[in-house]
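INFO worker-7 received task bundle
INFO bundle size: 2
INFO processing item 0
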Amino acid sequence: MAETVHKRPFEPLVAQNRFRRQKPARMEIPPFESVRDLLPVPVLPGFDAWNRMYWRSWSLAWEKLCEPETDSKLIAPFIEPQRVPHLFMWDSTFEALYGLYGRRAFNFIGFLNNFYAVQQDDGFISREIDISTGKPLYEPFDPDGTGPNILAWTEWRYFRATGDEARLRRIFFPLMALYRWSRANRAWQNGLYWATGVSSGMDNQESVPGGLHHHQHWSWVGASCQAAVNAMVLQRMALVLDESDLVDELSADRALLARAINEGCWNEDTQFYHDVDRWGGHSPVKSIAAFWALYDRDLVPDKRKPQLIQHLRERGSFYTPHRVPTLSTDSPGYDPGGGFWRGAVWAPTNYMVMRGLRTVGQHALAHEIAVNHLQTASQVFDRTGFFWENYAPEAIAPGEPAQANAILWSGLTAIAILLEDVLGIWADWPLRTVYWDLRLEAEGTYGVKNYPLGREESLDLLGNREKVTVHSTTPFTLILRTPEMAMQTAIPAGKTEINL
């Protein structure tokens, strides 16, 4: 009798994943000093420690850049991992987000190509890859096998910063195939998603009891909100690429997820979104993962936004001397020393919170949290000489436990958070628009020089509450905000001065 071979379903969109056929790209990594002039230059009078952290972050990132080994199947360079010789999906997505500011010097977004290259026929992408062989380390039906699925979120932010539609076309179908796989294999019938402690990225945060390696039949708020964000950004990609059938598919999914999250995860007593068990009961834990909901401005109903955001302002919730802890201070298991993901302050989750706050118009609060985080991290940097992978929420100290010199995604703090939330500058290049939220209390004129616009252009943006000076190689629209006013103006190529 012939043996029956069972194959997993084939996802047609995987056929359009060109990364699976791509040969390894061997590229020489340039010395840092040879490319330093291609990086943005913050102008920070009175904030010497921040400036030192900024340049040390870049130089350390350059020291950690690696080419694939000759016999590896990896197709692109990567940042050397610290704990184990594996590339992590979770880490790589955030490394690419500060790396986008160095794109004229090195292709940091290419880190993610290694994950697209190992996509399987059904759309699955392993959460970890062996750097010596380039082979995936997980199989699809391992509950820990993939995630957190925020690849599309990172790629969308890269597209908004660069306007690189050619890359958008290349990555859209692999991302859509992974999205469909996740919907088929990580969602319950009610539309909510599950994860594990490992696949959520926050492995020892037990909002789900016993959930380190199993979903325990719970619906996980972080995974569900990430799925909603994923659907939103993929829908926007599909609109850009004129994939109308997929726009409709994703729109329907967004509506289902918004309804399921708001009906299942919202707790009226706590005014917060929680993980939920199979009977509809909520975890007593309040996790920072719930703030992923803010990034889709249509997910949280308007009447709930103030209550959700208020948790970031309240002592006894997410307001600590160093903000923002990954677990609220009133949650079971909260550790004032950090406890890894049981209260420690991490750059990637802080970055996520600030992106959500900006999305819903909470610019002052995003800036306030960013300054607190950068100031505290810089004090630890000056005291110890190191960056740390996480920090204590209630002391000016590294978290306990935390690794030293963990640039990896910690580069977000002194690069992306500094530029986007402390200086308050962000370019939306498909719209040819630059936003500047002028809130920093500085000793004089501050801003940035050599800020990248699109793929080839650049900008100097310097000012204070009285006057702004712009030098640009290309025309664009500038939207300025201060605590007192907002204005929009057309900026030509060359020099422009604006009196406020």
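INFO item 0 finished
INFO processing item 1
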Amino acid sequence: MYGLDENLFSEATFYKFQKRLLDHWLKTGVNLLELSFQKLTASMMASLGLKTDIIRMDSFEAMSNITSYSRARLVVEVLRRVFRILSEEEQELHNDLFAPYLKKSSSKYVYDLNSEEYVSHLDILAKVYAKVFDKFNDKYKENDVFKIFIRVFNEHFTIIDNKFIPKDSKDLSSDSLQSPDDEEATFRTKRGKNFKGYVTTVTETANPDNKVQLIVDISTDANNVDDSNILNSRIDTIKEQYEAVDELHADGAYGSKENDEKLEKLDITMVQTAIRGRKPKVKIIIKKTEVGDFAVECPLQEVIANEGKKKYKAIFNNDVCENCPLADKCKMKNSKKGRVFYFSKEQLKASIRNNNIDNIPKERQKLRPNVEATVKEFTKNLNHKGKFKLRGRFKVALHAIAMSISINLGRIYRLFRKNRVVFPVFVQIYLFLSI
């Protein structure tokens, strides 16, 4: 009989379980843990009678636990790993080709290069890579390590005048290999900081009437994918799971033409707390009137727009415009009838989206920032460099899903403890596993 203080699991148990989840995902495209999360969350929502009409979304950088390789170090490190897969006979026969890169670690090797050697050494490595490819491709092209070598060869070098030379750094994409230990990690620069890994997007309920808010969707993607694209790919799943969703709170990064069209079809109003891009010097608001027309409003006047063949056209009173203190900053076009403002259907939808926040009650205008506290629950245990103790998108995704389940159950536990209510079975199980 086991006691509550005994550890019932071994690392091998978790590893094998994770391997089986990965194998199933690769075979079917279905993440069984994600499926379990969706079913468990739906059950929690129904049991607690929570409303799902209003949701909020945010993301965070899920940095992979990989070394931050410079370009030269990455090329050298992969070359060293190729040497390890060769037979003893091949290693002895081709030792001269690899020898310069085996005496030191890849980091030490690159560190000892001066600035001139660093630049010129990529030219030398291009020739070495070409020779290694010619000698070993036929035999090792199906080997996992050699596949990484071929990828680095193609990403970092090119042929000009029948010679292999390094590509210009600006020609390296954010999808290029960041580490031989994590082939899926991508590169992103955000607010002047570099990230290598993934981005995890969190969606939770946000109706103020709910006694507790729960995470309803979690996704992990390459970090060079735009937030608006992630929303576009996830919103169908969320709407299918929770049909009542009709209001989404997010920041300016999630807005796009494609999302305006999709959200309109799904009958979901997007409430943005910020506008992407530069803030206009003169605020122009486009809104739909009660009779179905479109009104265009500037700081001093409001006019009804006329629909043209390609664009809408709003003509403002010139007398008012001439006395406007913002006239020199206004970018409307001058005409004999007055200043003219043209806008397309895409601009119309974007403007309506940007101003949706002004059309809802004040108590709902500040719902989005609370999701940032949820994000901190995911990132509070990261190491000092902000990295997870994981590598690979699937492992990071599993971690995010498991954390979502834990966070939800923790919130329910605190709610029931506060109200001194008997805990449901799933909360009791959570408490048992947490001991």
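INFO item 1 finished
INFO post-check item 1: The longest helix spans residues 393-419.
INFO post-check item 1: The longest strand covers residues 193-205.
INFO worker-7 idle
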